[in-house]
Write a structure and sequence with these properties.
By secondary structure, the protein is of the alpha+beta class. Helix content is 26%, strand content 34%. The strands form three sheets. Strands 1, 2, 3, 4, 5 and 6 form a six-stranded mixed beta sheet that branches.
């Protein structure tokens, strides 16, 4: 049985409009600001409508993972704090925070956005570790796309800290050396509600989704990662449609980080 709220949304979608008056495939206003956190090696703030999210990048020298002794490390963490939405709780990361971090991580990792071999200092012993922290300031829908865009913008904004003569990091001094980026994945999330597809969902729309697909798209329009959410299955035709929408919308968001 369809709830009254879902029936109301479906009737609106049938007319080609959303709760806030947008068309089905329209984003809210999107803004990207970089250099937002002074203490990070790179940072960015992304605003999508009322959703605001910050991504910060810290760099450290650590031991490489055993299975990748000649590559730098990559870690993505997301923290959903109650100040951004009363539905979030303090404490260890919940399911939504873990999913946000994993989806962003997968897009960066699978696209090979960072040339991790160039982060190797001494094989098996010493590499640069890149750590991304994602924190919403106001969670009002579409954290996946906002978090991924903020993370990419923060990576592009990142510079290496200076090393002392004995090889220690001096975080108070920055170099002009940028991260070795070779791909720039844009993640787009497409929701299916009933027979309709939408992007940049509001919280009310996210609550009523049947299925969700997040695709990471590179500048040459290649798909490097896909994450499916929601309880309903998707047909091959529906997946093809949703990926096509993601490819089209990725071109729009990419203009904001050039």
């Amino acid at each position: 049985m369809i709830s009254d709220q879902k029936e109301h949304i479906l009737q609106a979608l049938k007319k080609g409009i959303r709760y806030d008056g947008r068309k089905l495939l329209d984003y809210r206003d999107v803004k990207v600001e970089t250099g937002f956190v002074h203490g990070a090696e790179g940072s960015a703030k992304v605003t999508i409508g009322d959703t605001e999210i910050i991504a910060g990048v810290k760099i450290a020298i650590e031991k490489p993972y055993p299975d990748t002794p000649d590559k730098g490390n990559l870690m993505v963490n997301a923290e959903l704090r109650p100040m951004s939405n009363p539905e979030f709780e303090s404490g260890p990361p919940g399911e939504k925070a873990i999913e946000l971090a994993r989806v962003v991580d997968r897009g960066i990792r699978e696209s090979k956005a960072i040339d991790q071999e160039k982060l190797c200092i001494e094989k098996g012993e010493k590499v640069w570790s890149v750590m991304i922290d994602i924190v919403p300031l106001n969670a009002s829908g579409n954290l996946l796309d906002a978090g991924a865009l903020a993370s990419l913008a923060a990576l592009k904004n990142t510079v290496f800290p200076k090393l002392t003569e004995d090889g220690a990091i001096n975080y108070d001094e920055k170099t002009k050396d940028k991260l070795p980026l070779q791909k720039e994945p844009i993640e787009i999330t497409v929701l299916k509600i009933g027979d309709y597809f939408i992007v940049d969902p509001l919280p009310e729309e996210e609550e009523l989704l049947d299925a969700r697909l997040t695709a990471a798209i590179t500048a040459d329009n290649k798909i490097c990662a896909v994450q499916k959410g929601g309880s309903e299955p998707l047909s091959i035709e529906e997946i093809d449609t949703m990926v096509g929408i993601a490819q089209d919308k990725a071109k729009e968001l990419r203009k904001l980080i050039r």
